[in-house]
Amino acid sequence: MAPVVYLHIGSPKTGTTYVQDVLWNNRETLEADGVLLPGHYRYARVQAVRDLLKWNPDEGEQPETWPRLVGEVNRWEGRSVVISQEFLCWATDEQIKIVVDSFPESTVRVVLTVRDVARLVPAQWQTAMRQRNTWTLDEYADGVAGTGDGKRGKRLTRHFWRRHDYGPILQRWVNAVGVDNVCVVTLPASGSDPEELWRRFCLATDIDPATTTPGEASHESLGAASAELMRRLNELPEVKELTIQEYHKSVNGALSRRVLGKRRSREPSLTLPEAHREWAERESDRVIDDIMAVGVRVIGDLEDLRQRTSSSDAVAPEDLPTAELLAAALDGLAGLATEHATLVKKLKKREDKPRGRKKQVAEPLQRGGLAELRRVWRRRKKR
């Protein structure tokens, strides 16, 4: 049983992937220092939290992934456990109670990483484009600002604020674990030392940064051209017909993450549309006031949540020149072709190296054809 369980609950697009990369890359070092990252493989925590949040208590027992993770935590005899999963930021009061009650003999402490709204809106939009949505950046910004039209506008409002309305998110967790056990970590302003976020996170979770190797910040976000390419791709009937699993593997995984993500430095950056800059300034004031009103500890500076003037001109992705979209599309095709060729080679190697029962059949066939296979089977029957 660990004395302290730290829950890093997000929110998304606030450096969570970078923090999770550093945690996992230093897993052995952290365990030697008494800090457990539960899960027998990297994404076990993702699956466990996702399954828990989808679970309806009226429909039977909890999905086994969550109790398995909890069991590992409760058997740990080190000084602490860190569970980092951004889905937890939208947990309901009932779900939060289930999570906290899962660790009855440990103190549960909650860490929320936060970011300024001006950077969050375009960052969250491009993520939505990797989840088969088709809103333009302007439409999304309108929805976030509450000026979108009808049901679509309300949907966009909910899509953003259920992840980033920090005051209510913090209050739900404070109600469950107490104000002294919740803290906020602000994402440093653009241009800051890339390792500053890691140092702040270490302070929040009682990790010694001197024992870890932060490494380079990961950038899985897309540039403007690639994000717009994904949006247009999502509009095609062939893509709409893909299952969630097929889309995740082939479009989001292969195309977006492993191919288009590498183009980010060669594309225009995504920025908040000019028409929403004044709104973002007002919203920053509200968000800061909400965090202060909850009264939690802040690591970093709440001034980091104020809008900074971007060095990049605002770009409307849907208005980008055709040549830029074509360049992204060609890179995408080349990357997918290369990945397909690599996959074919791997499958060929597997076929050439039979295992188990397949091996029992393949080796006689290779030696003498079907007649040899029959002789082998007859000898085995006699035994």
Describe this structure in words.
With 383 residues, this protein is of the alpha/beta class. Among the domains are: 193 residues, Rossmann fold; 31 residues, no CATH class. The protein has a 6-stranded parallel β-sheet with strand order 2-3-1-4-5-6, sandwiched between helices. α3 crosses α4 and α11 packs across α15. The protein is globular.
Question: Structural class of the secondary elements?
Answer: alpha/beta
Shape, per Cα inertia axes: globular
Number of helices: 16
> What integer is the average pLDDT?
89
Alpha carbon gap, first and last residue: 54 Å
Main sheet: strands, sense, barrel: 6 strands, parallel
Percent of residues in helices: 55-70%
What do we call the CATH topology of one domain? Rossmann fold
CATH class of one domain: Alpha Beta
If classified by CATH, what would the architecture of one domain be?
3-Layer(aba) Sandwich
Radius of gyration: 25 Å
| Strand adjacency order, main sheet | 2-3-1-4-5-6
Given as residue ranges, the uncertain stretches (5+ residues, pLDDT < 50) are none
SSE topology:
Blueprint lengths: L3 E5 L7 H10 L1 H6 L2 E2 L7 H11 L10 H11 L4 E5 L8 H9 L5 E8 L2 H13 L7 H9 L4 H15 L1 H12 L4 E5 L9 H10 L18 H11 L2 H4 L3 H14 L19 H18 L2 E3 L22 H31 L3 H27 L1
Parallel strand pairs: 1-3, 1-4, 2-3, 4-5, 5-6
For this entry, give a set of tags.
16 helices, 383 residues, alpha/beta, six-stranded parallel sheet, Rossmann fold
Q: What is the structure about, briefly put?
A:
The protein has 383 residues and is α/β, with parallel strands linked by helices. Helices cover 55% and strands 7% of the residues.
